[in-house]
Amino acid sequence: MNSTNRGMNRTFIFIIGLLLMVVGVAVAALSLLPAFRSGWQATAPAIKRGVDDVYAASPMFSTGTSWIGLGVIALLLVLIAALLVFIVKQGRGRTRRLIRDGHTENGVTIIDAAVAEDALRDALSDRPELISTSVSTYDVRGTPTLNVSVTARRGVSPKQVSQTVEAAVHALDSVLGREIPVVVQIGGAFRARTTASTRLQ
After folding, report:
1. In a domain? residue 112
2. CB 111 within 8 Å of CB 99
3. Which residues, including other chains, have CB under 8 Å from residue 79's CB and lie 6 or more apart?
4. Cβ of 120: how many Cβ atoms within 10 Å?
5. Residue 150 lies in domain
6. Phi and psi for 69 in degrees, rounded to 5?
7. pTM greater than 0.70 (yes/no)
């Protein structure tokens, strides 16, 4: 859960995965298939001559340098910049504010996300069926949303863990006087299946 566009993430991962797969298949074919290796050895010089001819036919002014090479360098720089932006944006989307009521005659009510996070962690920390608990708050399309991630002990039913977390969430709703959107992620040990539940408005 962060501010990075999901479609962009999946497209980027798909393109990188496809390129790596193509390179991997080509390397494997060169190593394992003598016919493919012989064909490549026969074709490679012609390909190199073709590339050299293209470079020679596209000089940049009188520098003797092809604009294609400079274009490739510029494209790589843009790609590096895009990757840096992508890396920097990871982890964003977090918010420190859970509730902000509008202005009234008595002022404005603001509840920090840390209040809800600490309350849920305290409520779940002593539960014998849980190994660990992590609570964070994200801004999902302008709505503060709690992300509760718990790890169940070996052999504990995910349904039992889900009921435990839901009870703590409902208790928090009662204290805050409203329902807060919550995403619950349940992970388990070897015998406990992994599941996830969501309560979004």
Report:
1. yes
2. yes
3. none
4. 22
5. 97-199
6. -60, -45
7. no
